[in-house]
Amino acid sequence: MMNDLIARFPEQLAEAMHIGENAVFHQHDKPINKVYVAGLGGSGIGANFVAEFVSKSCPIPYTIGKAYSIPNYVDENTLAVCSSYSGNTEETLSAFNEMLGRACKIVVISSGGKLIEEAINRGLDYVKVPDNWPSPRACLGYSIVQQLYMLNKLGFIKDDFKTHLKSTMDLLKFDVEDIKKAAKSVANRIFDKLPVIYTTDRMESVAVRLRQQINENAKMLCWHHVIPEMNHNELVGWTEAHPEMAVIYLRNHDDFKRNSKRIEINQEIISKHCPTIIDIYSKGNSLIEKSFYLVHLGDWITWYLSEHKNVDAIEVNVINYLKSKLSKI
To answer: Which of 94, 180, 194, 220 has its Cα between 20 and 30 A from that of 151?
Structure first.
């Protein structure tokens, strides 16, 4: 069940570090001046986290694509990463085929499928993650950690992320009961609402992850936005009563002061139209720790929501239906 997979997240991070320590990445024959990651869904969101984690330390841009094609700037000076847990995601395979014609440095991160097969046949760098997880979105840790090790071993980031990952594991294990208690409390307040998630720009990936997990685990619609951008458009939409909604703010005690003040004013405005406003604060000392703490708490929220809804958190029948229809075209 999904709750068992969520509970194993700290152990997954430990296993991912072991895999990363043993992974081999060869230097490219051309200078690398950018990174481009192709990946969708649970396999693609990992790159969004990594882009935020390394934004202050990596000297080259880290960009993400979630489409069939790749940008024209992907060239011989690009580290091009294909992330697909199954190895058979059709959009990522399409992007992979385009990469082959660009002479870029290609790295595959997958549990198997066509991507690993192609990487082996073509002599490309690849990292094979465990293939015994029934839900790709439960494998977020594998995706993020392998990309961090890739950047580290190719000389773009230092080793400090390893310390942050180890601290994250300790934090999640120590705080597990409090995390589950807080998650159940939030789920009890929003199970019959339309959740709206807000956070600051440095943690949008956490908001996206929670939105996606609410969609897939709880089978609920949801949306998110980031501050300060949200203050330049969406805030104007809060002009009428919305008792059917629940607004969740993902916050950090060290958020940029102007953004914290913006949140306070936002809540003053929104509380006139929506009675359910929830603050969820992170724990931890680094952005990696804070983000993973909120991810883990959010995953538990969506598990308890699935219990309220009496739905199978793992099944994604509508996505499988879409894929089956596409396969016949």
So the answer is: 94
Same domain as 18, residue 136 = yes
Residues 179 and 212 in one domain: yes
Annotate 5-37 with DSSP letters as a single string. HHHTHHHHHHHHHHHHHH---PPPSS---EEEE
Residue 231: which of 270, 204, 278 has the closest Cα? 270
Listed in sequence order, the DSSP H helices in 23-139 are 41-53, 90-100, 113-122
- Length of the chain counted residue by residue: 329
DSSP 245-256: EEEEEEE-TTS-
The residue from 52, 118, 204, 216 that is catalytic is: 216
Shared domain check, 302 and 208: yes
15 included as an active-site residue: no
Residue 21 confidence (pLDDT): 97
Residues 102 and 49 in one domain: yes
Rounded to an integer, what distance in angstroms lies between the CA atom of residue 285 and that of residue 272?
34
Given 232, 253, 325, 328, the catalytic residue: 232
How many CA atoms lie within 13 Å of 22's alpha carbon, on the beta-carbon side? 8
Give the pLDDT of residue 136.
86
E strands along 69-182, which residues? Answer: 78-83, 105-110, 125-128
Helix H or strand E segment including 197: strand 194-200
Return the structure tokens found at 2: 């999904």
User: For the chain, how many structural domains are there in total?
Assistant: 2
DSSP 130: P
246 shares its domain with 124: no
Largest CA distance in the chain: 61
Residues of the chain with pLDDT under 50: none
Rounded CA-CA distance 81/28 in Å is 13
Give the integer Cα–Cα distance in Å for 67 and 64. Answer: 10
* DSSP code, position 61: -
Annotated catalytic, 56? no
Q: Could you list the residue range(s) of the whole structural domain that residue 14 is in?
A: 2-158
